[in-house]
Task: inverse folding
């Protein structure tokens, strides 16, 4: 048996073991049915957003947009307030974080509503059956600008909240949120300036 032939046999065996449709077809087996990841979503009011997405956006929720801050040692105001007792926030800290949160949420609700409307407008273009690339491009630009503004609102709130907390509170926050002590280096570095 040649080396090339052994490699091909190994690849076919591996493909069968892991269910590769292409390898299975060549080996005489029927390929499994293809996944239908969007099945049922055609009934959504807005194709690109679930009901939960719309609800979160209209409520000013984070929608995961602040993960770069959250997961790299910049606590979010909503979660800081949820953990206020465990973090032993002072009344002054709590008041300042509440102000940041209210400002962020008000801004996020406003932008979120406009973002939902922009996504709905894109959907409507396609539902009408009269898609023009020029108007589509304009709507896409508007939608992405709004998404960027929304993301900025959430990230800035994390940036504003972080220096209000002590190193010990930031460490405790990370532990309570399930991140362990992995942010200690970042936190000590970033908050010395």
Result:
């Amino acid at each position: 048996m040649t080396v090339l032939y052994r490699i091909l046999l190994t690849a076919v065996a591996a493909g069968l073991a892991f269910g590769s449709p292409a390898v299975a077809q060549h080996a005489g087996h029927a390929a499994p049915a293809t996944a239908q990841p969007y099945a049922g979503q055609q009934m959504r009011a807005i194709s690109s957003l679930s009901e939960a997405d719309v609800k979160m956006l209209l409520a000013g929720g984070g929608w995961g947009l602040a993960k770069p801050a959250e997961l790299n040692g910049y606590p979010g105001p909503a979660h800081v307030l949820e953990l206020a007792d465990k973090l032993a926030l002072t009344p002054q800290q709590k008041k300042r974080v509440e102000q940041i949160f209210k400002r962020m949420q008000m801004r996020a609700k406003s932008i979120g509503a406009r973002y939902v409307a922009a996504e709905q407008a894109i959907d409507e273009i396609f539902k009408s059956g009269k898609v023009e690339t020029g108007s589509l491009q304009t709507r896409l630009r508007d939608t992405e600008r709004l998404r960027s503004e929304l993301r900025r609102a959430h990230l800035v709130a994390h940036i504003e909240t972080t220096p209000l907390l002590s190193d010990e509170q930031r460490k405790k926050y990370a532990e309570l949120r399930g991140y362990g002590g992995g942010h200690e280096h970042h936190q000590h570095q970033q908050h010395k300036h």
Residues 50-177 form one domain. Confidence is low (pLDDT under 50) at residues 1-29, 183-193. Residues 91-128 form the longest helix (38 residues).
